[in-house]
Records
---
Amino acid sequence: MSPTIESAEHKALRSAVAALGQRYGREYLARVAREGGHPDELWADAAKLGYLGVNLPEAYGGGGSGIAELAIVLEELGAAGCPLLMMVVSPAICGTVIARFGTDDQKRTWLPGLADGSRTMAFGITEPDAGSNSHRITTTARRDGDDWILTGRKVFISGVDIADATLIVGRTEDARTGRLKPCLFIVPRDTPGFGRSVIDMELQAAEKQFELTLDEVRLPASALVGDEDAGLLQLFAGLNPERIMTAAFAIGMGRYALVRAIEYAKTRQVWKEPIGAHQAVAHPLAQAHIELELARLMTQKAAALYDAGDDMGAGEAANMAKYAAGEACVRAVDQSVHTLGGNGLTREYGLASLITASRVARIAPVSREMILNFVSHQSLGLPKSY
């Protein structure tokens, strides 16, 4: 089956997840965020139905499917107004990396809990001075006997307060070349020296953002994920799903906003006809719908390539999907708010907060400018600008 033509199974999954999302909706998530809580009820229900671990191996309690299916789950929850951001991090990034590269013990320890939602894991890569450049990471890991000692800082790390552990990206020295290479470590939340502080965000979300400090954090050898010499491969095995899931997150948000605007445009009358009869209102909404559909196609392609094991092809497609979805989401939200006029800024209609939220997909986990850099020199063969 072509990734551009959804299978009956994928359509059924969309329908089932949409039904779950409609039971909760935007007001549920907004209330949880206002009260400083977490969407525990939705997370538990999604887990019970097998949605959170749909991409993880059946041998460890998962659904045995792929990122394509997990992206459908996140998109449909987003379209219902209640996306679960931790899905991007816990099953998509951390679960995928551990399933592909973890030791047998790491798989037994973590995958069943990640699959059934009883355990969550955060992902720590971004640093204050590195931005989108993973090659400038300064968090270092050095050997001390059989242990590892981690030192460094991370910033804008989601959900650390509720995660049982954080998958930290550090760098260790290659014994042969002396160069620093990336390595991944599982750091339990209460590990001595592992500190966190909340970042005060204008964005209102249930998942808080944190700055992390690793002050001589001592970890056993078993904390290292996979092969010490395969860091980049393992790192991008997690970053590609992250981009695909971010695209799904953005598409769902854009769809949610667009549906609200369409409903309004069908019923709101200022003159004789509903405002949706006027092309100045209808055409921009139609354009937003087209752009979201195109972004979804690229997301499906990226997921299909990744699930087929084509990491290189998936890297290009995942970056393109994330770029396209971020742009489509921002435009869909902007046009939806504009369609409602003053009502688009009221809490009653629930669209104004999306003006800020929609920008996330343009900025995180990698900026659109860095994606354009990637495409210009990787896809087009142009010289690097940095």
---
Amino acid sequence: MTLDVKKLPGGFGRLWTAQTVSSFGDGVSHAALPLIALTLTRDPMALAVVTAAGTLPWLLFGVLGGALVDRWDRRRTMWVTDAARAVLLAIPAAAAALDALSIPLLATVAFLLGLGGLFFDTAATAYLPDLLGRDPVLLERANSRLRGAQTAMSGFAGPPVGSALLALGRAVPLLADAVSFLLSAVLVRSLPAAPARPVPEARESLLSQARTGAAYVFRDRLLLGLALRPAVGNVAFLAVETVLALFAHDRLGIDTYGFGLLLTAEAAGGLLGAAIASSLGRRLGTGTALTCTAAVEGLAILGLAAAPNAYAAGLALAVCGAAMGATMVLAPSLRQAVVPARLMGRVASTSRMLAMCAAPLGAFLGGWLAATHDIRTPLYAAAGLLLAMTAVTASMTTNRRVEAALRAAAPPTAPDASAPEEPAREGAPGVS
């Protein structure tokens, strides 16, 4: 009944709009970048370099980035990062206009965009529970709306537009993404200050703060399970993403515009998954729902690998997108509800770092398997990894663990007043 009573604060609307605009630009470049790379080379390993470059910042700076976000003003971190990414995209756009694009340039830009994404995503993840008072109901509703908008824009609307804009010139989709970052920066800058701020640890070094955040994840079986699942999943998904454009073109006979539509099918499923995530969590329990969606992801990629035509491939990607959409609403909402505010940036960045550090491995694995075996081999390998990961982490994210964690994180006083209780949660959220 509280679902109908509680309302999201007005500032959330501006945050939602900012991320919607930025996600549209991301969708444009998500479709355009692999196609731009294909105009420069058809070497799967070269394509893997571009894909992996965007994930390397998490490997190099992930935990330290979270510690910095816990020190900095989170709203300012978001808008400054978006403004910087807008300026950065002007470089490859100019190179494309001058016919000076190269794989090293694309890889460098991907790396710097990934660095900006590290700070923006970590700050946004930490800002949201501050804005909503760490209320589990509001967090789930907010993440559902954010994930739905991100999926609609980055996967449903953006990719076809990116493919179409590419026909006008290689610089056009890059400029469109730059404009989206600028608009997002303006909107984020107008957001209100978070009503709850993390309490910095006095005289504690940045490295020590980073270690504290990482240790909190690794000592907590629930948080570790939530972190390991996307880490292994990213190995699988990046292996697929690295060869997807080539797979679609060579095996399914899909042209440039059709590739954008293929990505749209995945996004359509993602919209459905984000919409039904709360219902799944209530009916099955959050832990069981997360295990089921992980299994569906593996089976869907298996179906994609065996797809005989574009229609079957689109259906498989839609099912996979639905499972991913539900997962990416339930898991972050749970993490934001059970982690103390002062550690939110570090815990979020540690969890994301594990996922993103695994991504380069997946990208190179996909390129190597495609180059040495068959273009379908990376997809079969990805499906096997996803199903194995589901079996390993199922016992770490059970309904019993989730319920215990929520009880432990819901003291009768305000979130900031719970700091003395935090040492009791250093091991597990209530169940070891």
---
Amino acid sequence: MALYQAKADGRATFRFFEPALDEQVRRRQELRAGLRTALDRGELDLHFQPLVRIQTGEVRCFEALLRWQPPSGGAISPAEFIPAAEETGLIMRIGEWALRTACVEAAHWPPFIRVAVNLSPVQFRSPDLLQMVAGTLAAASLAPGRLELEITESVLLQDDQASLAILQELRRLGVRIALDDFGTGFSSLGYLLRFPFDKIKIDRSFVSGLPDRRESTAIIRAVVSMSQSLGISVTAEGVETAEQLDALRRLGCDDAQGYLYSQPLPAAELTTLIEGPQYRSGHSKV
């Protein structure tokens, strides 16, 4: 266990065994075992969080987010169970279910509202990805342009030439592509030059510094200016205060997502966000 922990921490280092390592292994084993039946037992669900047009307050898109609620205890964080699903390969089945469910839900929304679904690096490497996406859109009768697939830079790191080719094929289907967690990797700017992303999502770590931190303001201003020149939409993640929203508005950011507007909600609770008054005041409706 100590050996694998040392490898996980970057190699060329050492770790002593600690009881906590044993507990981590036991926890991962429990998660893997539970995930194998979670989907069949109906324990997985999708919640949706709105992406809101900053200038007008209208909902432009909903991001689909996985939730796991085992009957034996409280909800398990996606940050904990998604890595376990990737390690076991279960993310393929779970990811396909999530995409299918999100597209079916979106088909009932007004046609100007899109749905965003995250693609795991494991899913992205699947040879059946294009066929799966095309088949899901057809089965849900959802126009391809209403689906946004969100990827992180980790998707592109292993074999960026092959990955860029896959992105081009997805683009030919008519699907929109968003680069998530922008600014946290080493090569993000380079990828913008090599593939015409439809959207970039500024990581919440930059937004949290607004409006007082000068570095956050300078970085977001530069990202927005560059994106406007390239014709790429910009969404700020993790917006939690009216002050952050005002700063993003002044900086020219297109859309915002975060608890200031709404926490992720079950599909059945989205009606008021879709049909009710828009977020013109910049305050949450829930």
---
Amino acid sequence: MREVAIVAFGQSDHVRDSAETSEVEMLMPVLHEVLDRTGLAARDIGFTCSGSSDYLAGRAFSFTMALDGVGAWPPISESHVETDGAWALYEAWVKLLTGEAETALVYAYGKSSPGDVREVLTRQLDPYYVAPLWPDSVALAALQAQALIDAGLTDERALAGIAARSRAAAESNPHAQLRGAVPPGEHLVAPLRTGDCPPIGDGAAAVVLAAGDTARRLTERPAWIRGLDHRIEAHALGVRDLTDSPSTRLAAERAGAFQSPLDTAELHAPFTSQEVVLRRALKLDAPDSTVRINPSGGPLAANPIMAAGLIRLGEAAARIHRGESDRALAHATSGPCLQQNLVAVLEGE
């Protein structure tokens, strides 16, 4: 199979409210950053793919406006996915595997500040049986957290420990929205406290992919994508075991995550309870495990919707670029209670 690598990663400084900037103004510096790191110009990119959501923007085909950040010239081969940018990376990866392009620019962005995110995300639910009940994203995550507690798999103290570890790790991340000690806070929806939930914020991210010798030319240490797979759970929450994630486990198996030891895992777990589920599904919960989980702080430190999953891939790749990791796992999710899951395995040379 053709070799494909992430050769550059960039992201914005994630903030609670970016009302003073448009999506294009937020995105352009990030796009320039990743192109500058590789020395590529817009004309050198063989394929461009983006991830975003019109629901967040509040207008149809909003992604076409964001293309102003890429530029009107030269004409490009372009695609878009109405979900997290991690799935845009998947589409670009397939494009490079088939030999239709040598390089690809993938970007994602989201501005959650203008609206009520908890209400917007109800649009992901079954419109006949679940959405009319109006359970929001935090309420559904709390349902999952309570199922874990009832099964004896965690407790509120352990969840608070996950939040504290993540935000302590974010102190070394200049792009994070929350850093350092964050109090557990009051119950938002029991058993989840405010500290168990991700910050609402705005942000963007981008990566450059390249194939084979092109990747080696563009960076000293490419982050090779050794495996990439995504799976989905049943849409109906009532037929799922919320304490487990078979789709994550299957995606990891197909991506080759269990074939040899990992040293880093960037998990897209917006809620502390979801990290518990993912660690079990990915076999990262052993007491003697040496895998560093979310050394960037993860989505508990910055969670720009539609970009947070792509950021997990980018953060894992960046650690390989810096020589801080040799074999990393990156995970992205979309939908309520970890409904859709993507797993990638990245390696250095």
